[in-house]
Amino acid sequence: MIIDRNRLALSLALLACVVLPARSAAAQAAAAPAPSSVTPPSRHVTVSLVSEQDAVVPGRPLTLGIRLQMQPGWHTYWRNPGDSGLPTRVRWTLPAGFEASELRWPRPIRFAAGPLLSFGYAHEVVLPVEVKVPASVPGQEARLAVRVDWLECLEACLPGKAELSLALPVRPKASPGPQAVLLAEARKQLPAADPAWTIAATGTADAVQLSVKPPRGTVVTEAFFYPLATRVVDHAKPQVLTKDAAGYRLTLPRDAGGAPPARLQGVLVARTAAAERALEVDLPLSR
User: Domain residues of the chain, as ranges?
Assistant: First the structure.
């Protein structure tokens, strides 16, 4: 019998999700109340719209965030949910001339559900959004609204949705708002390219090899690659880290059902003695 892996993954996501012990760094941010409406409320995830600034300044960008606070044991999903789950989605309603960027995604963590491995967030996460503000904003107040849809999982998975809104005064200058610390913490968790790390990728029929050369003197104790695209890496198979003369090699088992991409895109999370680094990867995949 042939089993459709995508259908199996979605079915298992809606039946059960077993959470590996982990904690999102965003949970360390201040827990000030969010100045937004949440309708209807979820029993397991509180979602709110927060702003880094206390006002809208014409012609200056505005940083907002979708804040998800999960009850203990519950989790939501990253932009690539892995073998099961659905990513958080947004649909904005903004004043004329305002434009919202795509969501930005802090580094995820891993969740195991039987033979499947998924990627997402536990405890709390803030997904930053940059909003372009036009040079002229009529009126004394700007109202920003967004619909958020997500999937929340523990032993069962439930769809959630919220209609959020935030009214900010229009002023010639802005100051950090009461939620600014949340956005600052989320920004620290965003993957970024680092020229001090040299990374290359080669592909074979069975695996993708990531060659990683960290800064001199840096010892990597653990690494995991989160691909942006599905069907590139077999998520549930172990990723093996080995030391070689040039640095390190991380072997990523290929997904047998996917076609090899021209580029390898994703996030490499490398644990060192000093810290955990989330490195943005966007490389040609040589063969």
Answer: 5-188, 198-286
